[in-house]
Amino acid sequence: MKATVKTLDATSAGEVELKDEIFGLEPRSDLIHRMVRYQLLKRMAGTHHAQDRSEVTVTGKKMYKQKGTGGARHGDKSVPQWRGGGKVFGPKPRSHAIELPKKVRALALRHALSAKAKAGEIVVLEKAEAADGKTKGLKERFGKLDLTNALIIDGADIEPGFARAARNIPNIDVLPVQGINVYDILRRKNLVLTKAAVAALEARFK
Predict the structure, then answer these.
(1) Please, what's the b/e burial string for 153-186 (b: 16 or more CB within 10 A of its CB; e: otherwise)?
(2) How far apart are CA 201 and CA 198, in angstroms?
(3) Taking the model in full, what pTM does it have?
(4) Which domains does the chain have, with CATH numbers?
(5) How many CB atoms lie within 10 A of CB 136?
(6) N or C: which end of the chain has fewer CB within 10 A?
(7) Looking at beta carbons, which pairs linking 102-106 to residues 24 or more positions away fall under 8 Å?
(8) What is the rounded distance in angstroms from the CA atom of residue 152 to the CA atom of residue 160?
């Protein structure tokens, strides 16, 4: 499939061929869902911790004598029945990450790219550069391209001026091609790829 290459000033800069094996698949929501779940679970900190009865700080003295009170028999106050006692089966630090084969992850990325292409939400830029590094000027140029909610993927290196200008614009994310991922693709309306990013993706999936 062919896509029009645009400049940041919304002028045409030719065409580029987007390979069908990367951008022309019939999107599978199950694969995309599995990958998003994999990413979100992997980034969870898993630092939650509740004290059990061996960890709470309470006296170890028996509360009252075993017999003769007319009440139930109790030992120390660390048991969960009492206020300040330990939690039964409370959360402990652990990894929430799940396994997902490398080939499935790669396929899910291709399906996410194809979903954006099918929806007509891919924009190909000639270059992502902003020599002055000014946010105001870059925001005006994005307005010409109708980019208000977008993920911008550049080549291996992001031009420093562009990164500096874009970082203060709400709902605009900029990543090098190595950082492209399914979750960030889906959370933004438009996917903006530079010609360098397209070439790098084609080389990656060759």
Answers:
(1) bbbeebbebbbbbbeebeebbbbbbeebbbebbb
(2) 5
(3) 0.84
(4) 2-44+98-204 (3.40.1370.10), 46-95 (no CATH)
(5) 10
(6) C
(7) 104/31, 104/34, 104/35, 105/35, 105/38, 106/205
(8) 14
Residue bearing tokens 């911790």: 49
Mean pLDDT by 10 residues, the chain (206 residues): 90 91 95 98 96 94 93 92 94 97 97 96 93 91 94 93 94 96 96 95 92
The confidence score (pLDDT) of residue 1 equals 85
Count of CA atoms in the C-beta half-sphere (13 A) of 103:
0
In the prediction, which pLDDT does 13 show?
86
